[in-house]
Amino acid sequence: MTSERATSGAAPTPDGIDVLVLGGAGVDTIVYVPQLPLPPADSHLVPAIESRAGQTGDLVALGTHTLGLRTHHLDLLGDDQAGDLVRAFHAEHGIPLTEAPLANGTKRAVNLVAPDGRRLSLYDGSRAPDTERLPAAALADLAARSRHAHVSITQPCALALPALRAAGLTVSTDLHDWDGANPYHETFALAADLVFLSTAALTDPERTMRRIAADGRAEVVVAMAGEAGAWLLVDGQLSRVPAVAPPEPVVDSNGAGDAFVSAFLFGWLTGEPARVCGRYGAVAGGHACTVPANRTGAIGRPELLARAAELAVPTGP
């Protein structure tokens, strides 16, 4: 990846947007459990159950916004308490939000979080039926003012991809725990210039990464592997991004992937080479693991750059 390509895309207007985030707005109910998997039982006493806004699109928007990129979030929300939590989240952090009604209610999930920070997410599939659409006029207006779009794989974002292409934007997406076969995810995988995914459900991550690059338009494919770091595929060359030790004890892995994506995009949109973008992502992902699941927080630009610079200094003879 070169600086020239990294800074490509539609030129923003004076009131422009660096990152237009589509989809992924919702509420997680956090349940702290004694262990994962839970042992069979009729009931478990847990330390706390809390609900907070901050699903994947919310957290990517928070990350890019905190790093100083002009960010705007577009999604469907319900006229309900969960929607109010999402609106309050954006207002609190100063992230512009454009919404349209979601008849079935705001997207939600239940996250089971173990003491070691691992999580299991249970998503409510009833909230965004196939008949829902992002508002075409708002999408066209926001795309015309944006440099780049990050597209969540939540319904109905796949239908927005042609409009983003027509506007000349570069596009990224996160396939999360794709198994490499589900056709729903493949639509996003083959339409994006920058593809993120987890290795969690992949038997052969390199093969899947190379297929994405060969069959689609991706310049960069990033496979995130948690504590094992990540893998980068750029111009046919596969390289490893080492994990970065969190600066404080790990309390929750929720949002670590979104933090990685946000920091990588920050590097990519400011013209850094892929290896530097990966280092940014690893630093931000490690930082996110120190933030409890019942609140949200993102690393700021000064801390990110300082920690990444420390890692870049050669050590030893």
TrEMBL record:
One of its GO terms (molecular function) is kinase activity. Transmembrane segments: none annotated. Residues 19-292 form the Carbohydrate kinase PfkB domain. SUPFAM superfamilies: Ribokinase-like (SSF53613). It holds the Pfam family PfkB. Coiled coil: none annotated. Keywords: Kinase, Transferase. PANTHER family: RIBOKINASE, SUGAR KINASE. This is PfkB family carbohydrate kinase.
